[in-house]
Write a structure and sequence with these properties.
Elements: H1 17-26, H2 29-41, H3 47-54, H4 58-70, H5 85-88, H6 94-103, H7 105-118, H8 124-136, H9 141-159, H10 167-179, H11 185-208, H12 218-230, H13 234-248, H14 253-266, H15 271-278, H16 284-288, H17 290-294
Amino acid sequence: MAGYILREDQPNIVLPAQQADRLIGRGDGDAALLYLCLLRADRGVTAQELQRRLKWSQLRLHAAETALQELGLIDRPPEQKPPEPAQERPVYTADDLTDLLTGDAGFRMLVPQTEEKLGKRLKTADLQILAGLYDDLGLPADVIYLLVCHCVTRSEERYGPGRRPTLRQIEKEGYHWAQRGLFDQESASRYLRDWNVRRSAMSRYMQVLGLGDRRPVESEERYITDWMDKGFPPETVALAYDKTVFYKKELNWRYLNGILRRWHENGWHTEEEVRQSDSRKPSRREEKKDDSRMEKYMKW
């Protein structure tokens, strides 16, 4: 690519270098675009306005918003549990499915590909779920196929060769993908590459937690994935584990997660940062209050 210098006579948007570095380091185009849109608005805007301007779905906007919150570029709202698929899934009639199968080439090709990967003929209920992912949630056919392949891989790793996921399980993972903004093949492929790296690293986290070489169960994997997302290496998790066992006399996942959430809010992620914070020891009275101060961080 040739070098470019952009000069405009129009009004400018000022973006501090530190903020630009965070956005570049994140590598999330949707987050960067949303941040530019917010700066350009120069006023309070609603989610509906942003969806119209960016031509995004609600979940795509939510994924970009979450990325900006994790970067510390916008404030976090009070924590809310993401909606479950069942709360948002529309009902597709037989006529709706027929219209999709006859009028949409992408969906028509997706159905036999999914059947081949799952090794079964899709029933009406399965087609309704697949239609919801494609038509309502807005995942493209090529992304849904990657999703199905990913779920098959996970199912075989967890339950053994030949085991296949249900469409409900695929739907649940599909909502997770949508919340992460995986609406194109490039971002989905990047997520899968990252997932493979994380899967390899997962064993190291299990070891520092004293759980040996076994694969984590689903709830354990959810915790560890969240710690990876927040930027905690295994060495820092080991420090949190040490504190957990000291106070609780055993591994308590909620308590350990609370410690890491508190460190994340304070910007402590490396072993060195945590040890430096520990060097400023609290008073004995503050130490006795440790459990009560941890309560607000122990929500999952």
